[in-house]
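Example (one chain per record):
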Amino acid sequence: MAGSVTLASRSDLFCLLSFLDSRLPAHCEVQMVVKAALLAANTSYQVFFLHESPSNDTYSAIVAIKKENVISQTQQNQKIWNLAEWSIDENALLRVYEAIDIDWKRDLVLAFNKHHNPHEKILKFLEDRHRLGEHCVYSAGRYVLDISEAMKLQTTSLPDEVYVKSLERHHAPLIYEHWTAFKHTTTVDDIADEIDLLPSAGLFLKDNDELVSWIMGHAPMGMSRLFTMDGHRRKGYATLVTLYMSKRMAQSGFLPFVNIVVGNTASTKFFEGLGFRFVRPLNAILTKPQSTDQTATSATN
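Predicted structure:
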């Protein structure tokens, strides 16, 4: 008989970290959320786990959650659940999914899983909750830089006209403005909170302190939102902030990693050129509630 699904306490989180450390680099996104849950003073980060049996402390599934807010098409606040997982199989994983207090009739869900395409059992789980009417699947690859290599990076040699430092909360609106691909999955406030909590890097011009290039931690996506402003590209600025960020991640106890969508050869070449290596395929499936009309149509088919 399997154990029950448990919301991790602070002491549980430390035990989970020890377990996940032995499963790096493949499951670094889960470890990142667990570490963030230990650092955060709110419930935006939560971790649920399942033991194989009530008398056995061996884990069979772990789901690490980052909750954010989005503005819906009707300009209303809506919750989005970012789910990262480790599990022995899909049956164990879905038991944890079922136990999480997700409002399947209202909330958005972005679930990260192994392999380039979602497992048929996961698709069936979502279909049963009327979530596949307007879903998107992002196939990607996980690339990592070993912590030992990141700690050796030289980040003090910079062009005379710039300096690099961590981002601050007031930079969040600028980052949000230029996060065009996935702006619909976050808000300015959530970006600001991540700047406070996780490593980040910004490159500034010395003559006016203008922020022109940046990258930041974004659980469970790792190092994300890399961007350089028009007029400042092809100067190596993206390389400088990425190197600084990679070292800050390592110094903070996080494994430096990125998720690159399949087919994005420019990003793959960029990160591989900095020493990142491919470790696993993954997919992220974004689902939202099915409209009333779609639900009615499904019920009559």
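Caption: Residues 237-251 form the longest helix (15 residues).
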